[in-house]
Amino acid sequence: MKLKEGIFISTLLEDAGTTHGFATRSWGNLGFGKNPGDPEVVANRKALFRALQLTDRNHMQPRQVHSSRGVSSSEFEQGIEADATFTGSNSDLLSILTADCLPLLAYHPMGVVAAIHAGWRGLYDGVIPNALSMLPPKPMVAVGPAIGPCCYEIGEDLAIQFETKFGAEVILREEGRKPHLDLQRAAFIQLQDAKVEDIEIANLCTFCHPDLFFSYRRDGSSGRMMSFIGL
Question: N or C of the chain: less Cβ packing under 10 Å?
Fold first, then answer.
């Protein structure tokens, strides 16, 4: 991936001709959180969309609840609870918000795109395969910046659950410290299981780069970055 004007661009999705990006914190907080209509967030979103000439798009941002639910553009309405969206309309712009969780953007040449939010809970419950099941087979998928295995400390019970479901390779263990979870590796396993062949992973840790990313785990309360995709 390459960084351009505060947005990481996937080479894979760029070559496919999609409108997409993984915005960094340089665009400010892009998530309303518990403050719907926050004027600062409204202004930040307007600035982003204006800069990218996307103000005429139908913006679809669900209320993320760490679920495995995905919705189509025909089902979407403001405030709907879901963690993945997909559309075949070039008038739509899909987005998700993250501050450590995995953002995934998918495209299929048949003219369908999807945006997926995967924290540990959604990842474990299958948000990725559920979302991919709504697309034609073998889409291309870009996985954006998220907290890395270097920094994602978890408890032993959760580590055992992930080892049981995904294999020992998704848990890093070192003597004298708690287990660390590799979200990127777990997502890659699910993408491979879904027969996805074209995959690009940023491998950029949000915790390690405070100059580039918000991180809930690092900062406690934090802003949110937006990842977006359209045809």
Answer: C
Q: Which helix (H) or strand (E) holds 94?
A: strand 92-98
In the structure encoding, which two tokens stand for residue 182, read together? Answer: 């590799």
Give CA separation, 111 vs 25, 107, 181, 187, in Å: 30, 7, 34, 23
Question: Are β-strands 198-201 and 140-143 bridged in parallel, bridged antiparallel, or unpaired?
Answer: parallel
Q: Would residue 192 count as lying in a domain?
A: no
Token readout for 122 is: 């959604």
Helices (H), 111-175: 120-125, 127-132, 156-166
CATH number of the domain residue 85 falls in: 3.60.140.10
Dmax (CA) for the chain in angstroms is 54
Q: Is residue 151 in a domain?
A: no
pLDDT tens figures, 87-144: 999 999 999 999 999 999 999 999 999 999 999 999 999 999 999 999 999 999 999 9
Q: By three-state DSSP, how is residue 114 classified?
A: strand
Q: In what order do the strands lie in the sheet with 2-4?
A: 2-4, 7-9, 19-23, 225-230, 92-98, 58-60
- Tell me how many domains the chain contains: 1
Q: Which of 110, 104, 109 is nearest to 132 (CA)?
A: 104
φ/ψ of 160, rounded to 5, equals: -65, -40
Buried b (16+ CB within 10 A) or exposed e, 172-186: beeeeeebbbbbbbb
